[in-house]
Design goal:
heterodimer, A: alpha/beta, 8-stranded mixed beta sheet, elongated, B: 11 helices, globular
Amino acid sequence: MNKMLLLSALAAVSLMAADKISGAGASFPAPIYYQWAHAYEATTGIQVNYQSIGSGGGIKQIQARTVDFGASDEPLEPAKLAQDKLLQFPAVVGAIGLAYNIPTLEGKEVKLSNAAVEGIFMGTITKWNDPKIAADNTGVALPDQAITIAHRSDGSGTTWNFTYWLDQISPVWHEKVGLGKTVKWPVGIGGKGNEGVTNMIKQTPGSIGYVETAYAEKNNLPMVTIQSAEKTWVKPTTENIKAAAANAKWKAEEGFYQILANQPGKNTYPIVAATFILLPTEKADQNKKVATFFDYSFEKGAEEAQKLGYIPLPKETVTAIVAYWKANGAK
Amino acid sequence: MKNFNVGDFIFENVSRVMSISVLVILVSIFYVLYDHAKLSIDTLGFGFIFDTEWAPNLEKFGAFPAIYGTLTSTATAMVLATPLALGIAIFLSEIARGRLKSLIGTMIELLAAIPSIVYGMWGLFFFVPLIQKLTGTSGIGTLTASIILAIMIIPFTAAVSRDAMDTTPDILKESAYALGATKWDVIKDVIIPFAKVGVIGSVILSLGRALGETMAVTFVMGNSTNMPSSILEPATSIPVILANEFSEADGDLYYSSLFYLALILFVVSFTVIAVAKFAFLRKVRKNG
């Protein structure tokens, strides 16, 4: 009797296992992946387990083939994809905002030129009323307050995308600091995760830091207006972030390798990043299951993504991804 | 072999194997750390310890800011915690009576059971704004980390010291009182000398905990790999760097350098505690 029970329990477990998809990686898109997984399970009964362990972890796990899909904020270059036998496609787009906390400026717009951003993050501008900041903010009473910078303390795809942008706009940054998932910040304090940085900004008057825009919005932190690639002033609004995704030239044959920072266009917000999914080329059956999940999410999950502050992929990109799946036996 | 007992024989040998396994575990931890750190040790040598630049994206690895942060935060925490903890121990052992004694005694032991992340969060939302107001800095830095560490290690020092003090034979204390000693005289000249070994042991236990603390420190120390010029500035420590960067460490030298850091922490903690135990405690025992 007991044996029978045990056997049927085992059978149930293995049945469930067959209908499971496991993924791991980037923390930046984790909230929307959880949401999509939840919705997908509710309609299909197929469970999608996503572990938010960081982009580097996602790449390592998929290289070791321990998960069905990996997720990374830093796209892998086509050569690397070929070497590791991986497929790659973008899943969702998000933006990074410079959130700040200056209680005396509540409700006012603060503009930071590329030169001001460089000065602040290099530590050469230390007060909010510095002439380099004041020049673009006539009529705003900038306080004589010290600037505290909040950055990520953990290795992070968000940091990679943000420092990529800094590296593009500032020769000094390029020469002295560079880009990476962990860099040596000239000044500032580190918080763990987007949540940690948001908290530090909230707690420290005079602070500024970079976070995924959804985190700033959720916490009612204002974000500065910055300069687009064409030097116009842009805010991280849905429209301006969408413009970056729309202008991107995704190429399926390159595994959609494309960095969305500093895309051209007068209304294009410059610090935008797509986050990517990695699949092992040889596991066709499993890839089909993963592709079906993302196909469903692209189609039905756009609204949920926007609610959480992400931007769904443009229609043409989704069409290109589906064609890419078909071409590589994943659909 | 006339009193040979199978049960005794088995018990004796099982416990022997178990205690030897401690040595095996210790040596294998050292070996694994060394093996993974080998690339970094070969490439960077001892320069790693004194180099102040930690910039993984530029493949520059220098451990000094982390080592410095670990040692300063631990030292400051010890300075803050030890007198307080000894005061608590003396109070519990000699002054408090009845209900109060058992109530505070239990509370102190419960403090040790609070997970470190809770201390970290509490530190971030309570001490950081407080230090911010008092000093005009960001409130995040070595000092705040040391305060949190001090609160975390007080129960260890206090509870173990109290137990050591409680073992002072009543006859010693009563004789001293009979000779006209005051309470303070008894504490100073009878109890503390008697409990000395236990008290020092408890301080060493706390030191070990403070050196390796990770979660609480990462919340309030600032996670900055720049060399701080005062304890009010953000800094970092070895366990914090390991926790923050391990999961995203790509590149062989980066990965290996993190193991090199871990090896340094292992050797530093091990040396500090071994020196304290073998050299210091032995001397105290002899003289006391």
